[in-house]
């Protein structure tokens, strides 16, 4: 088998794992929010009140995508819009207490999902996987 075929198989397997995790996530998290919504909440929780453009840049999203995500979060009361008192044109997003609660719940479900995924591996396999990902990211 040539190296190109192996790379394509690896990419395919990685996509299958990701897709499987998304399906499992949607089955266990019943808040009608996707992973991207949770990433926005997480960004706001970590960084505090933020401009939408900064959130989009930090998460690698386009501004229209962030607008779509934030509209749903606002409608659900998980995020609020705030104006800058000095420059009324400047808009910020801020996570609410309900948003923090949903984020906490999502993080718990995410931990359960990772535990289910990685419980199939023994200690040596986990260390090998960690080393491989570290090498690929380095």
UniProtKB/TrEMBL annotation:
GO terms for biological process: response to stress. PANTHER family: HTH-TYPE TRANSCRIPTIONAL REPRESSOR YETL, TRANSCRIPTIONAL REGULATOR, MARR FAMILY. It comes from the Bacteria. SUPFAM superfamilies: Winged helix' DNA-binding domain. One of its GO terms (molecular function) is DNA-binding transcription factor activity. SMART domains: HTH_MARR. This is MarR family transcriptional regulator. Signal peptide: none annotated. It comes from Heyndrickxia shackletonii. InterPro entries: ArsR-like_HTH, HTH_MarR-typ, MarR/SlyA-like, WH-like_DNA-bd_sf, WH_DNA-bd_sf. Residues 4-138 form the HTH marR-type domain. Keywords: DNA-binding. The keyword Nucleotidyltransferase does not apply.
């Amino acid at each position: 088998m040539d190296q190109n075929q192996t790379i394509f198989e690896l990419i395919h397997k990685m996509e299958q794992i990701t897709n499987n995790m998304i399906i499992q996530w949607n089955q266990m998290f019943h808040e009608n929010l996707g992973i991207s919504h949770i990433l926005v909440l997480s960004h706001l929780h970590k960084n505090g009140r933020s401009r939408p453009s900064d959130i989009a840049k930090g998460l690698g999203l386009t501004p229209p995508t962030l607008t779509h995500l934030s509209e749903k979060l606002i409608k659900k009361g998980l995020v609020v819009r705030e104006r800058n008192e000095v420059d009324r044109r400047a808009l910020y997003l801020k996570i609410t207490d309900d948003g923090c609660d949903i984020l906490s719940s999502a993080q718990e479900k995410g931990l359960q999902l990772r535990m289910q995924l990685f419980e199939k591996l023994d200690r040596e396999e986990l260390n090998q996987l960690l080393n491989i990902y570290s090498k690929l990211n380095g």
